[in-house]
Design brief:
Distance between the termini: 41 Å
CATH architecture: Alpha-Beta Complex
Protein name: Glycosyltransferase family protein
Largest sheet: 6 strands, mixed
Radius of gyration: 17 Å
CATH topology: Spore Coat Polysaccharide Biosynthesis Protein SpsA, Chain A
Structural class: alpha/beta
CATH class: Alpha Beta
Number of strands: 8
CATH superfamily: Spore Coat Polysaccharide Biosynthesis Protein SpsA, Chain A
Number of helices: 9
Helix content: 25-40%
Number of domains: 1
Strand content: 5-15%
Shape: globular
Oligomer: single chain
InterPro entries: Cytidylyl_trans, Nucleotide-diphossugar_trans
Length: 248
């Protein structure tokens, strides 16, 4: 049996409601999107990385950034993110899809690799994710077969399912085999951290972290981020007041 082709697909657009243009904001001399895509591309077990953005002219700079770094891009409908992911997966020839979002510039390739290995190495599954309630936000990733993405794109009618891509799968435990989310081997210290970029305070923290970590250790992982914040406890307060958006 042939090995499945595993492709990570990340979504990005310039018209984010809370912090427009956030994925191209600079940190350590490069756009956040460049940090995100290049870190993601180092994930063990991945066969490809693709960016899924919109057909809007406002997203031309996102396309130019990704393609300039050598990453493939799929453009689709702004509101129908599910359809956009399905189109990207088809273009990439993916058998398994790893879904991430481009507002996570500190994404950890080793952790995403652990997710892929867990999905492939255990009992057959339809869906597995990183537990975003136990890890800092900003390390999030999900993995599932493309055939379920195609089914969701064909059948999902709920606007929330089309906007958020995977609820069609994980909200149907009677139909699909859901794995227990990946959790940290040891408790996260300090707890309750946000490393995704949704608001200006998030950007202030993530930019500070990238500029502190990259010069000494370009291949830093999420535990290095924890150590940095343990050594600078006041930094955690920078975005402590930001609240995560919830699904509809």
């Amino acid at each position: 049996m042939d090995e499945p082709r595993i492709v990570a697909i990340s979504q990005a657009r310039m018209t984010s409601t809370r912090l427009p243009g956030k994925v191209l904001l600079p940190a350590a001399g490069r756009p956040l999107l460049a940090h995100h895509l290049e870190r993601l591309s180092r994930t063990p077990g991945l066969d490809g990385v693709m960016l899924a953005t919109t057909v809007n002219a406002t997203d031309d700079p996102v396309v130019e950034c990704a393609q300039g770094l050598g990453f493939a891009v799929f453009r689709g409908d702004e509101q129908d993110v599910l359809g956009r992911f399905a189109g990207a997966a088809a273009l990439a020839g993916a058998d398994l899809v790893v879904r991430v979002t481009a507002d996570c510039p500190l994404i950890d390739p080793a952790l995403v690799g652990r997710l892929i290995a867990a999905f492939r190495g255990g009992p057959p599954l339809d869906y597995l994710s990183i537990d975003s309630t136990r890890f800092p936000r900003g390390l999030d990733a999900e993995i599932f077969p493309r055939r379920l993405l195609d089914e969701a794109a064909a059948d999902a009618a709920d606007p929330a399912e089309r906007e958020h891509v995977t609820p069609y799968i994980y909200n149907r435990p009677d139909r699909f085999r859901l794995g227990s989310p990946l959790v940290p081997e040891t408790p996260v210290d300090p707890a309750g951290q946000r490393w995704c970029v949704d608001e200006p305070a998030d950007y202030a923290l993530v930019r500070r972290m990238l500029e502190a970590l990259l010069p000494a250790n370009p291949d830093f992982g999420w535990q290095d981020c924890c150590k940095l914040l343990h050594d600078h406890p006041d930094w955690v307060d920078i975005n402590r007041s930001v609240r995560q958006k919830t699904l509809h």
